[in-house]
Every structure is written in C-alpha cells, then in structure tokens.
Design brief:
The complex is a heterodimer of chains A (544) and B (382). By secondary structure, chain A is mostly helical. Chain A contains 22 helices and seven strands. Chain A folds into three domains: 121 residues, no CATH class; 91 residues, no CATH class; 278 residues, ABC transporter involved in vitamin B12 uptake, BtuC, CATH 1.10.3470. In chain A, helix 3 runs antiparallel to helix 4 and helix 5 packs antiparallel against helix 6. Chain B has two domains: 34 residues; 241 residues, no CATH class. The chains are: A mainly alpha (544), B mainly alpha (382).
Chain lengths: 544, 382
Amino acid sequence: MLQTNTFPKHECLGIHPAVRFFAMLFVSLIFSGNQAWALTGAEKVALVRGESEQRLQMLDKVLAQGDVTATVYLQQLLDDAVRLDGDKVLIVTDEGATNVMTGERTKPSEAAEEVINNNRIQSELEASIATLNLLSQDASVRLAAAQKLQGTEANSSRLLLIAKAEKVETDGKIRALLQQVRASIELTSDNKATRLAAAATLAASSNSSIKQMLSSRLAADGETDAEVKAAITQALKKIDRDLATFELLGQVFTGISLGSILLLAALGLAVTYGLMGVINMAHGEMMMIGAYATFLVQNLFLKYLPAHFQWYLLAAIPAAFLLTALVGILIERSVLRSLYGRPLETLLATWGISLILMQSVRSLFGAQNVQVENPAWMSGGIEVAANLVLPYNRIFIIAFAALVLVMMWLMISKTRLGLFIRAVTQNRGMASCSGVNTSKVDALAFGLGSGIAGLAGVALSQIGNVGPALGQSYIVDSFMVVVLGGVGQLAGAVYAALGLGILSKFFEGMAGAVLAKILILVIVIIFIQKRPQGLFAFKGRVID
Amino acid sequence: MPQLFAQPSLFSRLYSGKAWSMLAAALALICLVFHMLNLLLPADSLFHVSDYTVALTGKILCYAIVALAIDLVWGYTGILSLGHGVFFALGGYAFGMYLMRQIGMDGSYHSSLPDFMVFLDWKTYPWYWQMTDHFWFALLLVLLVPGVLAFVFGYFAFRSRIKGVYFSIITQAMTYAFMLLFFRNETGFGGNNGFTDFKRLLDMPITTPQMRMALFILTGCMLIALLLVSRAIVTSKFGRVLTAIRDAESRVMFSGYNPLHYKLAIWTFSAMICGIAGALYVPQVGIINPSEMSPGNSIEIAIWAAVGGRGTLIGPLLGAGIVNGAKSYFTQAFPEYWLYFLGLLFVLATLYLPQGVLGLFEKLKAGRRAVKHSDNNPIEKA
C-alpha cells in the first residue's frame, strides 16, 4: 500500500497524519490497486497515446503538478509495464492487468502491445522521475535524483520544480548539486544576468560533464554574448584547474596507499634482514598465509557468528599475526638456525621454503583465488570531488599501516625484547656476552618479522585477489624498499616505501603500469650507485 | 691440485689424463652414440634413443652451459646472480629473431613480417630488427646483447661495490624488469607468446631428425669447449684472483688489485656464455617467451650449481642434469609434487650439501680411502 514517507513534504504540511491517512485510504479505494493515484486516468492515457510532442507536453504538465507519486506510473511506463490494448490502456504487472481509466482489473487481449518510447521520451521520462524524486522525503533518494539530473540534458520545463526543491532542501550537499543543475539549465535562459550568474555557479562544480556542457555552449550555435562567453571561459579554466588539482591529489592518495602496503610488506623484511642478515624469500608467502588466515576467519564468522560478520576483520588481525609468526618461528628453528652467516644460502633455502608453502596452500585451498569480502563498513568512500573518491578500504590500509608502524616502533624502542633485538643487531657477540639469549632473540625477531608480513596479508586481502601467488608479486617491490631504505632502519623503510609508492603511481599515470615498474627499478639501481647502503645507514668501521 | 700449476703446459694444467679420457668419452657419447642410436637404429629396437630423449637431453645440455656460467661467477667469484635467466633469454631472443625472419612468407598471414607484427598492424620491421635476417649478424647479437647488458649493468654495480645479497636482489629486479618489458606487445618481441613456429634454419627445415641431431651435437661440443675454456680461466692467474676476490675481496684490494676489472670480465663472459646457451636452446625447444626471464627461473639456475657443487665446473653440469632430469620426471609422473620436491631440494642442498653432490662424492671416496682431503674446494663463505 501507500508509504507515507514517499509523500511530498509541501503538500502535506499542516495536515494531521490521521486525516492524511484517511484521505489516502479514500483515494486509493477509488482507484483500487492503482498506486499512482494523483494522475487521472485521462492524463495517464494522454501520456501514452499520440505523437511524441503531445506526450512530452503532457509530461511537462504532470511535472508542473509536482506530485512525487506520479513517479510510480512514469516508472511503469519506463519499464514497459504499460500496454495498449485496442482503445484501452492497461498496466500489466505480475498480479494482473488494470485498466487505467476505470481502475478495473481485466485480462489483456492478445493484441495488447507495449507502448513505444523512443530515446527522447525515455530520457525525458527518466529526468522527470528524477525531478519528482527531488521532492521525496528520503534524503538518499533525493541525492540519487540530483546526481542523475546532473548528467542529463538541460530542460527548462524542469527548472521550476528544481528551483522549488532547491529552496526547501536542507541537505547542503544535495542543495549544491541542485544549484549546479539549476545553473546548467539557466545557462540557456534569455536573461543575460541569469546566464552570467549560472556560469559563475558552475565554475565551482569541478565536474567533467559540466565542463563538457560549458564548452559546447561556447560553440558557434551556443552562447552569443561576449561577456557571458568570457564568463564561461573563465569557469572552464577554473574547472580545469580544480580537476587537475584533484587528479594530482588522487594520485598522491593512491601513491600513499600503495606506499603503505609496501611499508607493511617491507617492515617485516627490515627486521629479519637488519637483525640476522637473512634474506627471507618466503616473506611474500608469509603475506599470502596472512591473507588466507583472513579468509579462514571470515569463513568461521560466516558459519558461527553471521550476526557479527562485519567485525571479522578485527578477529583476523591477531589470528593472522599469530599464525604467520608461528610459521616463521618454525622455519627459523628448523632451517635458518644452521645457516647464519651465510646470507646467500639463506636466500636459496627460503626460496625453497616459499615454493613449499605456495604448493601447500595450493593443495589445501586449490589454485583458484578465494573470495574475501570487505566488511560493510569498508565499502564506499569519501567523495571529495566528482573525480576524487577516497575509498574506505584504502583509508583503512593507510591507517592500519600507520598503526602497525607505531606499534612496532614502540615494541622496538620501549620493550625488553626490543632492547635485545637492537642489541643483537648492533653487536651480536657483545650482546651474547652480556647474557642475552641471542638464539631466542633470533627466533622471536623472525617470528615478529613474519607476523608483520601476516598483517600485511590481512591488508592485502581487503584490496586485491587472494591466491597462492599473492606474495610473489610483492617480493621484488618489498626488497626494493629494503634496499632503498637501508638496513635496520624503520625511518628508512617508511620514506622508501612512501617514496616508491607515490613515484610509481605518478609514473603509472604518465607511462602505464609496466613502464612505471621498469622506471622505478632503474631509478633504484641508479640510486644505489650513489648510496650503496641505502637512504639511512649505520656508519660503521667494519668493511667485510 | 696445486702440483698442476707448477707445469705451464695447458693440457696438463686443465685436467689429469684420467679426466681427459672421461671428457673424450663424453664427447664420443654425445656425437657418436646418441647419433647412431637415434638415427640409425630402427625405432622398435631396444637400444633406440627416442626423439623425445634427444630433445630433452639437448635441452639439459643447454641448461648445463648456463650452470657453467653461473659457476664461474658464483662458485669462483662469489657473485650470486639471480638474473642469469635474462642473459639466457636475450641470447635466445637474438637468435629467435633470425629464426623468425627465416619463416619468410610461411606465417599464418603470409606476410614478410612475423605474425605478431601483422597482428599489431605494423607495416615495417622496427629498427632493432634490421639485419637480423643475416645468420652471422644473429650470432653476433647472441654474444653482444647479453654481453653489453652485463657489461653496463656490472660496471655500475661493481663500481659502487654492490655485493652479496644486495647484488643478488638487484639482478633479480633486473630480470623482473626485463620480463615485464618483454611481456608488452609494443616491445616488438611477440609479447606473451614470444617467438615460436620456427620453420627453417640456414634455409633448411628445422624439424627434421637430422637437424635436431646436428643441433644436439653442436650443443654437446659447445658445452665441452666452454668447459675447457672455463677451466683454463679458473686455473690461470686471473682465475686465482677471482677466487681470492670470493674469499676476501678487501684483501685483494689491499694487495693492489682492482676487483672491478676482474669481476666485470668474468661477469660479462658468463653472460655471453648464457647467451650462447639460449641461442642453442631456442631452435631445439622451438619456443622462447618472456617467462624464461621470471625471477623464479633464475633462482633455479643457482640451485643447479648448488646441488652439483659450486666451484668445481663439473659439479654444476651434473646439478643441471640431476635437477632437470628430476623435473621432467616429476612433472610427468606427479605434477603436483614437483614444487615440493624442488623446494625441499633447495632446503636440503643448502643445509646438508654445502659442496653439492660432487662434494658428497669426494667425501665418500675420502672416507673409503681413510685419507683426509682438505685441499679441495675451500668454500666456506660465498
């Protein structure tokens, strides 16, 4: 039946809800089963019969009534639910057919045919629905309608209604949109002052479709007045500047988000390499295991706690950390322990381990990618401008990387284990003499590095595919970060990761993804010429 | 065997009489026995060697050349390259360009251009394809392209004294970058698919058993020749400096040598050997594509040397044979277990076979004779 919240505000003002309810009931009894009660049967017929011009005129009339309930019929018309059956006009739904004139239920004859809506009528119908929806009480419906109108052709018949809607609009964002829509219609007005004002309004839009519309106004058959033309050119320039700025900001943002992924991937490597001189080729596979741990936790939530599904990620973080840390400690105890001091051998051995881990995951979960869903609170994003949307999942990753960085810094600089790790990194022999159990510190540090890789895997599972080869694509990049940043330095890793991230996004914009990667590698190689020990290196006297 | 260095005679410096006779036997096996068993015996004979076996062995011989190259830089000079796959592939691509030109008008589009260029709607060959229809020029490219790349890359890397794992990681990045580059269609080397469907070599059909056998014998002879050259290098004074660089680079510098020249020379030579191996590989296998440059492939090359025994020249050849033989067996018999096996091989070889199969062999022999051999392969650090 009728939903009260779809009623236009302005019509019902001051009417007691109960009165309104009975009025509705009364009306709906007259037109039984016909929800678009505000349109008379004759109007409905006029909307479907006759020449296109006449139908469009009728549509304008309907629009002038400003009745949101008319959208129901217009939508039916758009959905081909309205049929012509001889001299009758029927609405055919799943429940049956209704004659629009009489409101009676009938059966459509075999000759019944769909109303033909040409492209123009279709787009006008859509625009009319959107315009009428501007009067809806549901803010999200109004927003969608305003966005829809922004993309459609200017038509002065909608101006009145849009202006009216703009006046009563309480939501600032929707009002700004409506202002733009109104301005783009007013750009064709006869009044020069109105046109100038419209151009000024549109200058603030920073929207590429408005840009297109403005430049089409500058064409030969468009604007004739020189002053208005100048205003439009001015507006175009402003929009271009804004668009470029937002694009730049967007690149910086994606660069930072890529950088924070690289940072997460490289932080763990920085620990293991800085501390033990171990090149852990299985680091990428640790990330992969972290991502699969997220997948498992997600499935557990789906099965046992579907009500709290959106919080599975919070549970996945410690789970992934513990699992990968455990795997890391296991690897350290079983293989790496006997290879210290032989970095090239550890490289080969950990490569072997990475192959085994990859194949194990393939045997356990299959070679296909698995599905990891974003929690609801991570979908969508902040819309800064039409061409700059900051997705929540990217923001989450940046915040997450920052959090991990801070935690790690606290752990290295404030805790006893951190003290031991620093001591062993700086001088293994001396630390051992002072009673530090270096072998235990090694195991824990390797566990820590692997655990952080697991956390990186959690983050990756939220933005990309989760499959057995997930780690492979990050291993070269994260080594680049470690090489660039220098060994055993958190600050170096942070700068290198963010720098590489932003730089590669810029190159991507200029030269495409593949060339960007190659350029980055070349830059890293050249950079290492100048500073073989990375951005930040310990000054030491030991040569070999 | 220090007593060998006292004698200047090259023949006796390289190998002992027994080793020479074994080499001659290997040469005969490749040139005569394989030849006769494959071509002259009927297919149903017990001793017949199938075409498949010849192709597989030929492939492994190419890999053995690569293993030899890696042993020169890793086993003797202590530079672990994780990017030798790129030199191998570049050699292959250089020769592949010639083979593509030899297809002539027989491609599926009947154009003088290779199919992939027709597909890209290119009208003429890009500049780097000029002259590639000459055989001698292709041979030159096979040596020069990997050589120049290695020289430039090595010059910058060694000049700033990048070594150890840093160097390894950068070489890995290099091969990764090249792989990405060659995956692009616009690079002009066939993108994903690379070069394939070769028809002729020197205007003779490439798929005949005789041609296959000729390539096989050529590969075998090349392997043995390169082995002797390498052996001559490592037993010379130059080679002794290389070994010294491996064991204590700073001390070599303090003694007045510039390691840059030595490293650069052996690094470039090694890359050129890889190029030769690639050029011999492509006509035998019939395809070259960018996946040959994947970082994983290059790391696998290192494991051949590690399994066989670094710093022995012969060991890596054995290693290439063992690992690739196992690979072709496993990928047919138990495809899903191959990666487990390879992974375990990496781990076990580094943990328990620091001197490879050859070292194990020596140890067993030494144990039987109850004589301590401590002069062989003093590889403690790489």
